[in-house]
Specification:
Layout: H1 3-51, H2 55-59, H3 68-81, E1 94-101, E2 104-111, H4 120-126, E3 130-137
Helix pairs in contact: 1-3
């Protein structure tokens, strides 16, 4: 085998490396973009959880108008309404936790991003599950 054969093999290896690098960069970019969407979704859901609290209890200086069951209900309704817009992330957003402390609602969400060019058999192994937490605070009127 002469020099021409070695150069050809080296060119093929270089092209394969560049293609692999391009694939990894595309996959990381897709995961990063969906992570940003998940953060926006968590922010919107936390705002929805605090948004429907009883105004009469706030007027008298109580935060007891915000209970976890009510906040969780408002978060679930908001997730249903935003499932095709703000909360359209990967294979779907799941609310993992809604907690209320004082005048603050904290919402945790998770989702598994979709990455093109990854076979379905490898998605559970290769692609991480994203989880984000956001909180919203009710301010006095």
């Amino acid at each position: 085998m002469g020099e021409e054969g070695r150069v050809g093999i080296l060119m093929c290896a270089g092209c394969a490396f560049v293609c692999l690098l391009l694939f990894v960069t595309m996959a990381l970019t897709q995961v990063a973009m969906q992570d940003r969407r998940l953060v926006s979704c968590a922010d919107a859901l936390a705002g929805a959880g605090v948004g429907g609290a009883s105004a009469s209890s706030v007027l008298v200086g109580q935060t007891s108008g915000m209970d976890e069951a009510g906040a969780a209900s408002r978060v679930d309704v908001a997730l249903g309404a935003m499932a095709t817009t703000t909360c359209r992330v990967g294979e779907g957003v799941v609310v993992t936790r809604v907690s209320v402390q004082g005048g603050e609602v904290e919402v945790s969400v998770k989702a598994r991003p979709r990455v093109s060019l990854v076979p379905p058999a490898l998605r559970g192994v290769v692609i991480p599950e994203l989880e984000r937490t956001s909180s919203a605070r009710m301010r006095g009127l």
